[in-house]
């Protein structure tokens, strides 16, 4: 792990580490473990002895009604899965720099971070998705992060691109995720290259096993799901926003009803008419359909794999198939970042942690163990991909994907686009007319929000 001494002005001479894990209570409970001291050798030895004798703090969660920061020099907010791993590195950071560090769990991180920061109670560092970025910058809640070119080059290019807004870097990435095609290899041993291949295999599997009731398990639901809609549009060159010359998404150019996107919408309508996709399959039951052996194919992400394994399903992961008349469906990429608050109590400490701890192989590997998403750091990815075929499979399925739009205008897209897809799948509307209406609604929503 990278170790670098900080200036005395940024540090306290003697400190405690407040550790926080996951818990159901919103109350604040903490105890101290003394960290290393930079003042003198004797004081450092004393601090180490205290650390050995101390008990780790009880689990702690940010109170939803009073999202106050912990009493520490550096405070990090994360989700319950990653907080335990972060406490290990918080301990190391505190020991090396002689500071107090607290890791807290925020159940609704995005909202709690915004609310707490407005009143000066927020954390110094927050862990969150890259698509929050535009909104966070717009609200003035995150600070630019000076990641040098040599360090940035160690990450997957898409992860670095997702960390930027208007050309400025605001985050340090640690994982990349995307959806792919997961298949039950007992029902469908071969990965289909095309949608026609998929349907042929699915129908053959159903003929052998009457338990199969869904040919292609994809979350749709009554109100739709724009995240899963996008790949169908992408196969024909469609999407949501056009790109600017610099590669950023252009909120002034919505392309939901472009000719290319309409071709994707027509495919969705056909899938609905042929009983391949259904609004009766949604986020609440899609995973259970696959783990229950009722579908040979499932479009999902890494988050479903633990339950698939638990169910004893033999599975394979492959890229999304190509569509007739188009190319392969491409998923959105989701990148997880470490952000630094614009209201950080100790910005120097925060910048030190995210620029010198997060971009290390050791740290990225630890975060992978906590979340199961491929690391954003190339060196860490290569190591886990060599040992875990799933990691390589997820990467291959998303290598040509684009980061999900991180501009504030994306908040105006989810509902209208999702509902449009659901309506054409259900046969309630013709694709062009329905996507024309969705386009108008999205544009109106963007203007209203601006």
Automatic annotation (TrEMBL):
GO BP annotations listed: maltodextrin transmembrane transport; maltose transport
CDD domains registered for this protein in UniProt: PBP2_Maltose_binding_like (cd13586)
Comp. bias regions, Low complexity: 25-57
GO cellular component, as recorded: ATP-binding cassette (ABC) transporter complex, substrate-binding subunit-containing
Keywords linked to the UniProt accession: Signal, Sugar transport, Transport
Region (Disordered): 25-68
Coiled coil: none
SUPFAM superfamilies assigned to the protein according to its UniProt record, in alphabetical order: Periplasmic binding protein-like II (SSF53850)
Any GO MF annotation of the entry: maltose binding
Signal peptide: 1-20
Keyword field contains Transferase: no
Family: Belongs to the bacterial solute-binding protein 1 family.
PANTHER family: MALTOSE-BINDING PERIPLASMIC PROTEIN, MALTOSE_MALTODEXTRIN-BINDING PERIPLASMIC PROTEIN
Protein name listed in UniProt: Extracellular solute-binding protein family 1
Organism: Nostocoides australiense Ben110
Taxonomic classification: Bacteria, Bacillati, Actinomycetota, Actinomycetes, Micrococcales
């Amino acid at each position: 792990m990278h170790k670098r001494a900080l200036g005395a002005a940024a540090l306290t001479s003697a400190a405690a580490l407040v550790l926080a894990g996951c818990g159901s209570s919103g109350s604040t409970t903490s105890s101290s473990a003394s960290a290393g001291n930079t003042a003198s050798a004797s004081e450092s030895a004393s601090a180490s002895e205290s650390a050995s004798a101390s008990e780790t703090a009880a689990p702690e969660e940010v109170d939803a009604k009073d999202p106050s920061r912990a009493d520490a020099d550096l405070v990090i907010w994360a989700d319950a899965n990653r907080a335990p791993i972060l406490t290990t590195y918080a301990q190391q950071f505190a020991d090396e720099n002689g500071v107090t560090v607290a890791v807290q769990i925020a159940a609704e991180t995005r909202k709690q971070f915004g609310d707490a920061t407005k009143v000066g109670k927020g954390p110094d560092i927050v862990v969150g998705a890259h698509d929050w970025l535009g909104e966070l910058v717009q609200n003035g809640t995150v600070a630019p992060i000076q990641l040098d070119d040599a360090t940035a080059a160690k990450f997957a290019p898409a992860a670095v691109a997702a960390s930027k807004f208007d050309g400025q870097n605001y985050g340090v990435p640690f994982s990349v995720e995307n959806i792919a095609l997961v298949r039950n290899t007992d029902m469908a041993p071969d990965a289909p290259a095309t949608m026609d291949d998929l349907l042929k295999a699915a129908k053959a599997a159903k003929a052998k096993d009457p338990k199969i009731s869904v040919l292609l398990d994809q979350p749709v639901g009554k109100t739709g799901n724009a995240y899963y809609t996008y790949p169908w549009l992408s196969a024909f060159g469609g999407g949501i926003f056009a790109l600017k010359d610099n590669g950023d998404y252009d909120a002034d150019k919505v392309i939901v009803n472009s000719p290319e996107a309409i071709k994707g919408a027509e495919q969705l309508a056909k899938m609905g008419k042929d009983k391949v996709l259904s609004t009766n399959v949604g986020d609440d039951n899609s995973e259970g359909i696959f783990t229950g052996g009722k579908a040979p194919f499932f479009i999902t992400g890494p988050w479903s794999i633990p339950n698939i394994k638990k169910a004893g399903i033999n599975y394979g992961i492959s890229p999304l198939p190509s569509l007739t008349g188009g190319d392969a469906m491409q998923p959105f990429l989701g990148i997880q970042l470490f952000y630094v608050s614009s209201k950080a109590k100790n910005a120097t400490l925060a910048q030190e942690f995210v620029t010198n701890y997060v971009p290390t192989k050791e740290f990225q590997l630890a975060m992978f163990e906590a979340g199961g998403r491929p690391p954003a750091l190339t060196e860490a990815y290569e190591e886990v991909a060599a040992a875990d075929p799933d990691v390589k499979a997820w990467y291959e399925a998303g290598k040509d994907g684009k980061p999900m739009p991180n501009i504030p205008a994306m908040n105006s897209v989810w509902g209208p686009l999702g509902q449009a897809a659901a309506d054409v799948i259900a046969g309630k509307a013709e694709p062009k007319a329905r996507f024309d209406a969705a386009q108008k609604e999205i544009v109106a929503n963007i203007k209203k929000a601006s």
